[in-house]
């Protein structure tokens, strides 16, 4: 990996270092262009949302960041390094961890074994630190502690989402990528999931969140980007975007 040139100065004078930066990302699926020069930054300790409707390119963006989809042009910088040509598994070992869309739990494995798979590529220095991390995940997700011996495929949708996030946290992410964590969940469960995401961020984990649920996402984020048909059309402080009439009309159904 090559050392990064000096990071682009943040426009809002936030002194925190940039952990993740995407520069002019272009992605194709065959002849179809899915991303058209998308750029974003995530600073240490932030919760940043990438908001957009179905087909806007959000999941493509996450796949490009995590290394599962190659860039046609542009670059991805993580923790001061250009990782654009680095394989997905190496990005994981460096601390760029994703809880994927659709949860992707191992249905025949127990909750504990699913969580253990999260740290497969991120070895702990000692058994004590490993145990502390597992205990922390169970404290963050008490429901998982209650079901530690239950197989993943028998959990409810909300519990599977908790398991997917917990598995990602076992890898000790420097940046946690969350792709549509509210998808397919009941409103009460969605509120619970977002409360947990806020708590995780409040404890120091940097988060890039991809979402369609504007109310929940913007009300809990520091900043946000609006993605439409593969382009960033708006960006700014999340509270400001939440008050914006055009955003409210497009994503909240109110004018």
UniProtKB/TrEMBL annotation:
GO terms for molecular function: ATP binding; ATP hydrolysis activity; branched-chain amino acid transmembrane transporter activity. GO terms for biological process: L-amino acid transport. Residues 20-254 form the ABC transporter domain. Keywords: Amino-acid transport, ATP-binding, Nucleotide-binding, Transport. The keyword Transit peptide does not apply. PANTHER family: HIGH-AFFINITY BRANCHED-CHAIN AMINO ACID TRANSPORT ATP-BINDING PROTEIN LIVF (PTHR43820:SF4). Belongs to the ABC transporter superfamily. This is ABC transporter ATP-binding protein. It comes from Mycolicibacterium sediminis.
């Amino acid at each position: 990996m090559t050392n990064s040139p000096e990071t682009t100065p943040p426009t809002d004078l936030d002194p925190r270092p940039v952990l993740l930066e995407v520069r002019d990302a272009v992605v194709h699926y065959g002849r179809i262009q899915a991303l058209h020069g998308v750029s974003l930054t995530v600073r240490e300790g932030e919760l940043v949302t990438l908001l957009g409707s179905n087909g806007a390119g959000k999941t493509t963006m996450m796949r490009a960041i995590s290394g599962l989809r190659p860039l046609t042009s542009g670059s991805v910088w993580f923790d001061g390094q250009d990782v654009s040509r680095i394989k997905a598994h190496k990005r994981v070992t460096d601390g760029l961890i994703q809880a994927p869309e659709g949860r992707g739990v191992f249905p025949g494995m127990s909750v504990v074994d699913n969580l253990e798979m999260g740290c497969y590529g991120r070895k702990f220095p000692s058994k004590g630190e490993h145990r502390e991390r597992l205990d922390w995940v169970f404290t963050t997700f008490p429901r998982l502690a209650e079901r530690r011996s239950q197989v993943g495929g028998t959990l409810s949708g909300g519990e599977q989402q908790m398991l997917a996030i917990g598995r990602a946290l076992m890898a000790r992410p420097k940046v946690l990528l969350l792709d549509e964590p509210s998808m397919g969940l009941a409103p009460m469960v969605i509120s619970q999931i977002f409360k947990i995401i806020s708590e995780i961020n409040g404890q120091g984990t940097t988060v890039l969140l991809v979402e369609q649920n504007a109310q929940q996402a913007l009300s809990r984020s520091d900043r946000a980007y609006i993605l439409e048909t593969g382009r960033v059309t708006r960006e700014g402080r999340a509270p400001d975007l939440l008050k914006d009439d055009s955003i409210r009309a497009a994503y909240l159904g109110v004018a």
